[in-house]
Amino acid sequence: MDRIDSAEGRTAGGRTRARWQRDPEGMRQRILAAALAEFTRHGFGGARIDRIAAAAGANKRMLYYHVGNKETLYLAVLEATYARIRTAERALNLESLAPDAAIARLVEFTWSYFLEHPEFLIMLNQENLYQARHLKKSPNVRPLHSPFVEMIGEVLARGVAAGAFRAGIDPVQLYISIAGLAYFYVSNRWTLSVIFDRDLSAAEARAERLAHMTDLVLSALRV
Known about the structure:
The chain has 223 residues and is mostly helical. It is built from ten helices and no strands. The protein has helices at residues 2-22, 24-46, 49-56, 60-66, 70-90, 99-116, 118-129, 141-161, 171-196, 203-221. Helix 2 (24-46) packs across helix 5.
C-alpha cells in the first residue's frame, strides 16, 4: 500500500510539473488569483502559502521557485491589482471624448470599479495599514500611474483651451478627489446606512450618489 501511495504521489507531482511546464504563465495567473483570494480573506499576516498552492493546483516548492516567498507573492498580487484598474482606465479612451464627458466617464468608471471590485479596496486598505511597506519595494507601480495622470492632464488642458474648465487644476489632486468621493461611500456604506437610516446599497441610492459626484466634480472644474 505504501508503494502504491508513493507511486500515486509521484504521478500527481509529475502531472503538476507537466502542467506548469506546458503553461507556466497560466499557472502563475492561477497562483496570483488564489493568492488574491487568500490575502483579501485573511490579510497578509493570516494568509497561508499551503492554502494558496492547493487552491492554485500547485505545490509549495513550485510556488516558491517560480513566484517567490510570501512577501514577494503579496507584492505581485498588489502590483497586479493596480495594473488591472490602470489597464481598464486606459481603455476608457478619454481622449476621444469632450472634456466634460471625459471627466464624467472617469467618475462613473471609478465608482463602478470600486463597487464591482471589493478586492481592490481590501488590498488598498491592507497596504495602507502597513504604510505602503510592500508597495515601496515595487519598481512597477509608479510607471503604471504616470500615463494615467498625463491622460487626465490632457483632458483638463483641452477643457481649459475650450473655455469649459478653469486653469490650474492638478490632475493628481483631481483623481484623488474622485477616488475619495467614491471610496468613502463604498467602504462606509454599511455604517452610513444605519446612521442616516437609508439603504445606501440600494440601486436608487447608488444612482443618486453617482449623479451627485459627477455634478460636484464638474462644478469644481467649470469656469
